[in-house]
Specification:
The protein is mainly α and 502 residues long. It folds into 2 domains: 344 residues, no CATH class; 107 residues. Helices cover 55% and strands 4% of the residues. The protein has 21 helices and 5 strands. A 5-stranded mixed beta sheet has the order 2-1-3-5-4, covered by helices on one side. α8 packs parallel to α16. The longest helix has 26 residues.
Length: 502
């Protein structure tokens, strides 16, 4: 039966083709420019909304402004005699002395510089920079809750940058390790990571993964790098033996001093898994259908799988090492597809990179739930406020609190204050008797009555801070209380006829 030519092609879907536009050698440069501008715009936009991290970055900047040693800031255990981040504090202190910046500008510099380190390094290896925007968006979509760590301004991000360097070098240019200039560059980067972050032992994880994947050349280089970075960072710290020993004791105490996992801070607790990540990796493997032996000989895949499993013990294995490995696992596979479907100088690449940039910017910078603007509503205790001044610790006093956020916010607002803090950047650095009280508090899920040992030992110059909503003062009548900031009660020993609470 003859077919009506009018309808003969309706059942055949037409394949989309880009308009015939002559290729141009300027396209790759424009694409790279868009990617660079996107990576720079993301932190600038978020910082412009008032965003500031609420933890370590504040204390690093405040320490740089104060010019004090940790022993002048915290009540420390006798075994803690070494700064955990000597290089980072050295750089921040120098920047403060050079520019006169206070805590907030220093924190903003931390966030911006470290975000750019992590997001720009992969561009050294990729032939198609737009692929990196696609990778960032996919990683963000799979695990948005932990993507924000790229904006925490912590020196661990420099260690993450070095890990990305190593992973991309293994994936794209395994011959780079044979070149003296690149080998020296990577070794210097590893030394700087250990000096800035102080956690050189973390590179044992990729070393073990290289051995498991039988990538012996990469494992040999990492073993050499571990030795060089340990010696180099120890010498730069000024106290070589103390620096090396401090790393081990700090790691052991951070995970082993609490009897229950729920008593650890959130980022050290384990998680059940990430179904979206598992589904994404499975989808990529079905799409590519690699040979199992090739997959198991890939150090990046072994690192990705190992960190996914270890996240059940501590989520930091995943967010600090697994996420970079996931990004490095995805990027070359996305690039392979891009190389197959678009010419290097095709104008269609500009449309692709524009769509990817717009999607990433809208997704990441969206202020969902006030995640980027909530810093504007924080209410820290500050001696510059007349209503706070008499309720803050007196010279030589100690501020007791069971929540680390009290230390971070108060120290950032009062970097030159003449008092110390019982709890600071890590609970395991506390004086032994105070740490035992903290363990009891966490065991009892923050019970007010569990704070009673601190209330009993309070001197007139000391203060006890509890995070509780406004209303009835905490049930520790031996102290007088004042509600000074949002959800913040400050207690002190009675002052004659002084009234407790405002």
């Amino acid at each position: 039966m003859p077919t009506d030519p009018t309808f003969s092609n309706l059942s055949r879907p037409r394949r989309f083709t880009w308009p015939a536009v002559p290729d141009s050698p300027i396209v790759p440069r424009l694409v790279l420019l868009v990617v660079l501008c996107t990576c720079c715009y993301l932190p600038l936009d978020i910082l412009g909304r008032g965003y500031l991290p609420k933890d370590d970055a504040l204390s690093h900047a405040a320490k740089a402004v104060s010019g004090k040693e940790w022993s002048e800031i915290l009540v420390l255990a006798p075994r803690v005699v070494q700064d955990s981040h000597p290089g980072w504090h050295f750089l921040l202190r120098g920047l403060h002395l050079l520019t006169g910046w206070g805590v907030r500008p220093l924190v903003m510099a931390e966030v911006l510089c470290l975000f750019l380190c992590v997001t720009l390094v992969p561009l050294l290896f990729l032939r198609r920079p737009e692929v990196w925007l696609a990778t960032l968006f996919v990683v963000y979509s799979c695990d948005p809750r932990h993507f924000y760590r790229l904006l925490l301004g912590r020196p661990l991000l420099f260690t993450m940058t070095v890990l990305l360097l190593l992973c991309f070098a293994w994936t794209y240019r395994s011959d780079l390790l044979r070149k003296r200039s690149w080998a020296m560059f990577l070794l210097v980067a590893m030394v700087l990571a250990a000096w800035l972050h102080g956690a050189w032992q973390l590179f044992l994880i990729p070393l073990c993964c290289c051995l498991a994947a039988r990538a012996f050349r990469a494992a040999g280089f990492l073993a050499l790098g571990l030795a060089v970075q340990t010696v180099g960072a120890a010498l730069l710290s000024g106290n070589p033996l103390t620096f090396v020993g401090h790393v081990f004791t700090r790691t052991l105490h951070a995970l082993g001093d609490f009897p229950l996992q729920r008593m650890l801070v959130d980022e050290l607790q384990g998680v059940e898994g990430f179904p979206l990540v598992l589904g994404l990796v499975a989808l990529v493997l079905v799409w590519q259908r690699p040979k199992p032996q090739n997959l198991l000989c890939d150090p990046v895949f072994v690192l990705l799988a190992s960190c996914y499993v270890l996240a059940a013990y501590s989520v930091r294995f995943w967010i600090d090492w697994g996420l970079p490995a996931l990004a490095c696992f995805l990027a070359p596979r996305f690039e392979e597809a891009a190389l197959r479907h678009q010419g290097d100088q095709a104008w269609s690449r500009l449309v692709t990179v524009a769509c990817l940039a717009a999607t990433l910017i809208v997704s990441v910078t969206s202020d969902v739930g006030g995640r980027w603007s909530e810093a504007e509503t924080r209410d820290a205790l500050s001696s510059s406020k007349p209503s706070h001044a008499t309720w803050l610790p007196e010279p030589g006093g100690i501020l007791y609190a069971s929540e680390a956020e009290v230390f971070f916010s108060t120290f950032a607002a009062n970097p030159h204050a003449p008092w110390r803090y019982a709890l600071g950047i890590e609970a395991t650095m506390m004086a032994p008797e105070d740490f035992e009280v903290l363990k009891t508090i966490r065991l009892n899920r923050g019970s007010v009555q569990a704070h009673r040992p601190w209330a009993a030992k309070l001197r007139p110059e000391d203060r006890l801070v509890l995070l509780r909503p406004y209303g009835t003062p905490p049930a520790l009548p031996e102290l007088e209380w004042s509600y000074l900031a949002r959800n913040t009660w400050v207690g002190r020993t009675p002052r004659g006829s002084a009234n407790g609470g405002n």
